[in-house]
Amino acid sequence: MEWTHFNKEGRAKMVDVSDKKDTKRVAIARGSVKMKPSTVQRIKDQFIQKGDVLSVAQIAGVMGAKETSRLIPMCHPLFLTGVNLQFEFEDNGIIIESQVKTTGQTGVEMEALTAVSIASLTIYDMCKAIDQEMVIEGIKLIKKTGGKSGDFIREEC
């Protein structure tokens, strides 16, 4: 087996993608923040002292996707052509889904996962004063398209 992220000396390296063709790439990730039903209602009513939770989480998720290569050591800096997050309320939490797009030589799975992670952490930060029992869970890749390895669609979502 050839290790892609190690050089001949066994030290970490960023994979060389210069010979890969540009393709359209899309990744979708999902996760959730579980919380008390009263916290969900306060977010819906925009009655959180720090402000509009979902608006701030939306911006944070976009920023997280854009900064992924600065957070994850072996990620390439990418030109993202689109980043969007959607939020769905449940009785006991919020489901967060990100979609990240690019046309390039490497995929955007890490950017999509980072967007969900940062949005989740932002929700936690904005609501922690009223609900210390929140749990961030289930962050996973749902779908990815493009690239040499082909498409991936998670069977159970």
Describe what you observe in this structure.
- This is Cyclic pyranopterin monophosphate synthase.
- The protein is built from four helices and five strands.
- It is α+β, with helices and mostly antiparallel strands and 157 residues long.
Considering the chains and any ligands shown, give keywords for the structure.
Alpha-Beta Plaits, five-stranded antiparallel beta sheet, 29% helix, 157 residues, alpha+beta
**What is the CATH superfamily classification?**
Molybdopterin cofactor biosynthesis C (MoaC) domain
Give the distance, in angstroms, between the N- and C-terminal Cα atoms. 31 Å
CATH level 3 topology: Alpha-Beta Plaits
Strand order of the largest sheet: 2-3-1-4-5
- Number of structurally distinct domains: 1
> Helices and strands, in N-to-C order?
EHHHEEHEE
CATH class: Alpha Beta
- CATH architecture annotation: 2-Layer Sandwich
Low-confidence spans: pLDDT under 50, at least 5 residues?
none
What is Rg?
17 Å
Percent of sequence in beta strands: 25-35%
Total E-strand runs? 5
Shape category? elongated
| Count, helices | 4
Helix content: 25-40%
The SS-based structural class is alpha+beta
Note the topology.
Layout: E1 23-34, H1 37-44, H2 53-66, H3 68-71, E2 80-90, E3 93-104, H4 109-127, E4 135-145, E5 152-153
Antiparallel strand pairs: 1-3, 1-4, 2-3, 4-5
Helix pairs in contact: 2-4
